Amino acid sequence: MATSSSSSVISGIPLSQVRWDTSRGGGGRSIVRVNRPVPTASLPLTRFRFHLSPTPAAARWQGDVRSRNTIGLEFQDWKNNTIRKKKKQSGACKAWKWTSPVSFSQQCKRWIPCCSSLNRNCYRKITPLPLATSAPTFFPDKSCFPLSSHKLNTTSGKHICAPCATVGPDEPHAASTTWPDGLLEKQDFDSLYPQFQTTELEGFLSTQLPSHPKLHRGQLKNGLRYLILPNKVPPNRFEAHMEVHVGSIDEEDDEQGIAHMIEHVAFLGSKKREKLLGTGARSNAYTDFHHTVFHIHSPTCSKESDEDLLPLVLDALNEIAFHPKFLSSRVEKERRAILSELQMMNTIEYRVDCQLLQHLHSENKLSKRFPIGLEEQIKKWDADKIRKFHERWYFPGNATLYIVGDIDNISKTIYQIEAVFGQTALENEMPSPPTSSAFGAMASFLVPKLSAGLAGSSSHERLSNPADQSKIIKMEKHAVRPPVKHNWSLPGHNTDMKPPQIFQHELLQNFSINMFCKIPVNKVWTFGDLRNVLMKRIFLSALHFRINTRYKSSNPPFTSVELDHSDSGREGCTVTTLTVTAEPKNWQNAIKVAVQEVRRLKEFGVTKGELTRYMDALLKDSEQLAAMIDNVSSVDNLDFIMESDALGHTVMDQTQGHESLMAVAGTVTLDEVNSIGAQVLEFISDFAKPTAPLPAAIVACVPKKVHLDGIGETEFEITPSEITAAIKSGLEEPIEAEPELEVPKELISPLQLQELRMQRRPSFIPLSPEMNVTKVQDKETGITQLCLSNGIPVNYKISKNEARGGVMRLIVGGGRAAETSDSKGAVVVGVRTLSEGGRVGNFSREQVELFCVNHLINCSLESTEEFISMEFRFTLRDNGMHAAFQLLHMVLEHSVWLDDAFDRARQLYLSYYRSIPKSLERSTAHKLMLAMMNGDERFVEPTPKSLQNLTLKSVKDAVMNQFVGDNMEVSIVGDFSEEEIESCVLDYLGTVRASRDSEREHGFSPILFRPSPSDLQFQQVFLKDTDERACAYIAGPAPNRWGLTVDGKDLLESVADIPIADDALPHSEEGKDIQKDLQKKLHGHPLFFGITMGLLAEVINSRLFTTVRDSLGLTYDVSFELNLFDRLKLGWYVISVTSTPSKVYRAVDACKNVLRGLHTNKIAPRELERAKRTLLMRHEAEIKSNAYWLGLLAHLQASSVPRKDISCVKELTSLYEAASIEDIYLAYDQLKVDEDSLYSCIGIAGVHAGEGTTASEEEEESDGGFQGVIPVGRGLSTMTRPTT
């Protein structure tokens, strides 16, 4: 589904928004995370996660922490933080991803060596909206250069650390790092560094890493730990998170899901939390294996009285965590919500995830303690049962409080913490685990090994007398979290190899296989630990790049190959995962190729050039992030600290991280990189050898039936022995060493550029015939507008928010709306074809990608219904901006269109089309979309017939015909000078060939809603499935953002003449005049409907939650969203609701009643004020982000969006403030909610779904998101959804 109008207004163009993808991320990993057939270059490099420091959010707020009043809103995505609801992008409109396969500096998982090691999905992180990743530049060969003796002497002589910021093994939430005896090997430093004294190098590498200088740690007498970090972004706000170290792993056999139940009851039953709702605070909660977290994001003081809000927030957290009221009414209400949540989560993706976890952790409780719990048990518990579990685990000594934000007075904050929590009952008298100060780094080896979830595994003994136990609830906590025992994948540790496991299901579309290796977490405490992390990163970066470039020049047998090596705090281990996805018919070759490439890298290692390239990438990336140290948001800092604590890693700030990385980089050698990297891959490369570590599990997830051309559906057969044979076949193929690639330093040489200037003579021209100036600058916003002589308009803003970094976006009008009746799917397949080819001019895909790596560039190409866009992220170091502009020039002038790339793109869409009937959400939403849009295929995925009619020429023409001067607009935001940016614009954009096509728009087929009434206004979808689920969508027409409707009306004309009602104005005459002027300004402003529709969406979302979810208990998840187009003269609204088959019809009726009830149940002033605060807080939080400004600049000069001008940026805040309740009703009256205009579709899955019902067998196409293959990973089941 589309993002809400409020997000679109502020961000300008929702280029990454999803149309009709009902999947949402939640909890720690996405609840519906379907892997899309994206170009392999776009895959996160080996999914090798570094969380060594927090990251600045590139575009915060989509799916941010939500309180009840914000449910369902989707702002532009920035990262996948699992405490936040998130909507996935449409893979169908996403394509070209020239990314650095090395660094994640611009992604949500931005890597910097601030030491939280490699992290797979630790701490509720999921793969985000792919914001651009950065990539590196050429770096002198440092494969064997020495550290200066100055560095060695200074670092080995003393520790650079702040005692208040240390973390030790006594932390109950730190993962165990205990290795089996005899498995620790000492490095042979003499052979590695003959030029150094061994003792000197050993001394340096064993030196502790510096600790974050601003992080304050403490502990109250009752055992509550607290961490405080001052942080100014966003200003005047703070994050307070209460982490209770209890989760599903602590549940007994008859308590499965009770921790999650307590989270719901405690959080939503808190009256003190509810009192914060009017202050601008937002709150939520989640539960996973090892902890439960309640969090509040709040202003530092109230707007009305300047009252300090921290004490009120702490008081609310104290009530939620330690003094909840387990009222029977609240327990029943949350029981209904959780049962609905359970059915909502139980997608095929979730079931795949459960299968992976069950086999990976078959030896311990992690395999059978999924946080959501068991339905039959959830139905039985009473308040007393829940209360007893709470008394056992929820006490200050088993919790940690995190406060990060705009806090100046640390002493005052500590005093406030003590005042609120100090009186909470002291922990029972019990022995404590040894402290880090007593044992230092060796303490982790002294922690007793814990049995798998047994009650006796706590750090203190139980009462021996059962009679006493019935009277006293013994408080429990664990020295190590989670308290489970793993069977490690280490040489000699296990001797019995488990056969491959097969999970086969009718709802699976593609083949996937996961090979797992599981080892203890290596805590990153010393420079030597960080050095090992760096070397693994380099090694696996090379593997990812090789696999995803070597096979792109031909049709590869796999859809994707990913290698993930990361720590998991929630699972208490480090897991290496090789994941291969493929079309079922290609599964054996896909496995063979993946294993072959792993073996090649293990046998021959990385090359000298690869070491240079990827080392430089990481150093440049960390340098870039260190420069942005003052722009990291509080929630990012907090997430990072919580991750690090869970894993027991040292916490550093960005500057310390970069300096530490630079220090260890000089000690790295090529031989050692290959040696340590080979160890990571041995479980694959030496598979079945006696000396190799055994895989922890091998799990294949496969369909029951597959489609064969000329035959149709046929049974898919596969056996464990066949899987083993396919793995071994990859070990037997002959392999050769990897050749060095020649990497271009530039795509356009100075001589070529000079010739282009002479030929094209670029210049700036007046922006319009009426204006006699070639440059328009707005001092208030800092926005500059230019127009090139070839017709390309340019907007830019100089911003210091992200030091030496920049973003650029090309927007091209047209998108899928430009597809004609005989070229359905041409634009979307064309964009994918361009992506799959990845070539420009005479440069191969490999060369282009390495050019991006060397210049810290990320590029993505995507399409929506009304635009094609290309976005770049770059650094200004080492001519990075020039390199980005060169790449853009080459794409516009010298794109290469390849037949095999076209074949792959078409096959991907065909595969996706065939997967739609296997998804309840997609098939339901698709059916509704076809009905409402009168069968217009431009709003769904192309059918096989349409795909068959396409040719390489037709898709190339469909895309490139839109890339003409006056139909394009380029916006740039970054830390550059006026001279730098205008020089690049002239040289590389100004020399693009001039072309105009004023006749282009006349060929567009009109877009119309289906005439109403229609017999398709209510429909149903039934899906045969082993488990029951239900969902529904309700939709109807709306105007576009600028007040234009599909039937040709201009609604702004009527709004401007409406008089201002006096009863809505302040009492004072002066106040009345001011407010009247503001409202008149709003009524005459082109953004009137964009503003009021956004506020309306907030109000409706709040009411849906309160009524359908909270009061009636008919759903866990319901949301209202608006898709207001910019270029097309239409929009629509959608309500999405999940429920059970027995409740879904009532849930739909309740949603309709809320939607239609705004006139009978009038909007209250407090509802409007809350909506304003929500949207304005987002705006204030985002305003320092370059990506956000890029959205604000969009369409300022677009001829296809004539109503957007600079006032839409300058006056945004005042326009929201001016809106009245009457204005909201003006917007509401433009939504068609009557029975003849409203469309709904209900989807029901189950064993008996649809029996006795005659349903039309329409062809089904995708609804929004090119998701392709079923996801593989272990994330979906390890955490619950956010409570609200």
UniProtKB/TrEMBL annotation:
Report the domain of life of the source organism.
Answer: Eukaryota
UniProt GO BP: protein processing
One cellular component GO annotation, for this chain's record? Answer: chloroplast stroma
Family as reported in the entry's similarity comment = Belongs to the peptidase M16 family.
Q: Where in the cell is it found?
A: Plastid, Chloroplast stroma
What keywords were assigned to this record?
Answer: Chloroplast, Hydrolase, Metal-binding, Metalloprotease, Plastid, Protease, Transit peptide, Zinc
Which InterPro entries does the record associate with it?
Answer: Metalloenz_LuxS/M16, Pept_M16_N, Peptidase_M16, Peptidase_M16_C
> Which part of the chain is the Peptidase M16 N-terminal domain?
238-362
Which Gene Ontology molecular function entries are recorded, alphabetically?
metal ion binding; metalloendopeptidase activity
- What is the recorded function of this protein according to its Swiss-Prot or TrEMBL entry? Cleaves presequences (transit peptides) from chloroplastic protein precursors. Initially recognizes a precursor by binding to the C-terminus of its transit peptide and then removes the transit peptide in a single endoproteolytic step. In a next step, pursues the cleavage of transit peptide to a subfragment form.
Ranges in coiled-coil conformation: none
Needs which cofactor?
A: Zn(2+)
Q: Which residues form the Peptidase M16 C-terminal domain?
A: 381-423, 949-1175
Name under which the protein is recorded: Stromal processing peptidase, chloroplastic
